[in-house]
Amino acid sequence: VRRFLFCGQEPFVADEYIERLAWRTPGGGSRGGEAFDPKRLLEEFVNHIQELQVMDERIQRKVEKLEQQCQKEAKEFAKKVQELQKSNQVAFQHFQELDEHISYVATKVCHLGDQLEGVNTPRQRAVEAQKLMKYFNEFLDGELKSDVFTNSEKIKEAADIIQKLHLIAQELPFDRFSEVKSKIASKYHDLECQLIQEFTSAQRRGEISRMREVAAVLLHFKGYSHCVDVYIKQCQEGAFLRNDVFEDAAILCQRVNKQVGEIFSNPETVLAKLIQNIFEVKLQGYVKDQLEEHRKSDAEQYLKNLYDLYTRYLYINDEIIMYQISQGYVKDQLEEHRKSDAEQYLKNLYDLYTRYLYINDKIIVVGVLFIQDLKERLRQRTNLPLGPSIDTHGETFLSQEVVVNLLQETKQAFERCHRLSDPSDLPKNAFRIFSMLVEFLCTEHIDYALETGLAGIPSSDSKNANLYFLDVVHQANTIFHLFDKQFNDHLMPLISSSPKLSECLQKKKDIIEQMEVKLDMGIDTLNCMIGQMKHILAAEQKKTDFKPEDENNVLIQYTNACVKVCGYVRKQVEKIRNSMDGKNVDTVLMELGVRFHRLIYEHLQQYSYSCMGGMLAICDVAEYRKCAKDFKIALVLQLFDTLHALCNLLVVAPDNLKQVCSGEQLANLDKNILHSFVQLRVDYRSARLARHFS
């Protein structure tokens, strides 16, 4: 059933087939409401099985018949294939015979062609010789009648003929054929001039194809080199109109390189001759004029011109490398100046640095001296205390313009050193430039400014002192960062693979250490800051602040002295952060914070405190502690936390003193310190307080 009934349909499922059969059979029990009749269902199954068996037999007979027919056709097809193979073998044999015959005929044809060529070549030569003899006779007769000589449009054919006649005339004896040789030579020269003129005209018209034809004809003439010269000369007409001769030359070479291959059969030779002409005629003279113009009158401009010309030469040399042509004319001239002027360049750089610093220092010093002189005259006439003459009046003696000029000149010096120095002298010359930069920028400029700033630091007891030293530190720090960047960006690539590297690093290290010593000496600035705080406290703090007459009428949160001191401290902290960087900021702020704490501690020890005064002191210390947070130093904040805890001893009830002293923040303090704070209370002498504290 699965094999025959459902071939080509969906897969056969026996259960579904039986179910459908039972459903179609009356009494099969699958329809709703019908009684189940097993006999009738069995009878239906038996009949259906018999039908299937009959169908299977019928299909089996059909399959056998088809198999017999297929076997018969297979035998017939095999027989037909054998016959085709025999026919193919016969056709292949015929093809081989035809191929052999074709080869035989081709051999005969080639042989015949060789024989014809052997006969035709002498004949062509004889015909050509006859034509040349005819043209030669015309020269003998002295009258050129042939159309090839009289028709200007056939100049190409005439040139070919006259060139051959010219070669023949060279072999003839002079005594017998002097006249005809002269006529042929004259015609040879005339045609050569006509061809060159035609080439010139075609070049001006921009007719590349005509130029190529004429150049091919002139290739066998003696005047071919003159044709190349004409081409080179006309190429340069209008090519050098700008100030930059090197750029014009590079553009001209690029343009000609694209064109010359379409015109001449030997473009490399023509391009080489063009470049040689440009270098010898245009560039060499230009370089000489530019260098000689300022060599004796303006050394700085001369050296700038030398570097500029050498850089532009390297540029154009790189441009023509693609043509595999190198010209040494300009390079030799530049090399001569480059090698002889290395010392002159370094001397000029030294003079330039000196001039920058001299002009800057002169302007600053004149201004400062004028102010000091004016103050001295006023002091003498009025006897007014106008302050010490060492005051620099806010001048840091550091000039941004000078620094930028020095670094810019040094950057250019390193670039020129890289360009102009021999590879063997490059590290040495770079080191000498770096040494000059250190001398003038670090020693003569930064170090001088630090020395002057140190001398201008006011004493700790000065009133309203201006701390300009921090401004000097800030500017010096910024300048040194620029110096360090130039060291890494421009000097390191020049000396990285030479022994000079260690010398430069050591020199830089020495400069850093020298400046750090100067900065350490500037610690006197902190003394001045503390002195200013003392003046503020002395002027603003009153004894009645902490022992008010009316304990019940205190309206302020903290004293005026505290407000002004905190304002001053915050400004100085911000100034220190702006002036320094790295670990130096934390080191200086820690030192300032410790001194600030000591000042406040000693200041509080000078007063007696009532209950309300103690509360006000606690408020002041709390404000000082807020200010200490700006330092962002853990030790400083810890010191003020402890001081705040000590101030609690000024207000705590006598019965709770021992408990407070044994607290976490005060337990580790010396008992004398605790006692000193308790003694500041106005009620200390009471027997009750003394008994509780003891």
Automatic annotation (TrEMBL):
Cellular compartments per GO CC: exocyst
Coiled coil region boundaries: 49-87
Top-level taxonomic group: Eukaryota
Classification via Pfam families: Sec10_HB (PF07393), Sec10_N (PF20667)
Record domain Exocyst complex component Sec10 N-terminal: where: 38-146
Assigned keywords, A-Z: Coiled coil, Exocytosis, Transport
Cross-referenced InterPro entries: Sec10-like, Sec10_HB, Sec10_N
Domain Exocyst complex component Sec10-like alpha-helical bundle residue range list: 157-236, 243-358, 376-693
GO biological process, one term: Golgi to plasma membrane transport
Transport recorded as keyword: yes
Family: Belongs to the SEC10 family.
Protein name (Swiss-Prot/TrEMBL): Exocyst complex component 5
Gene from which the chain derives: Exoc5
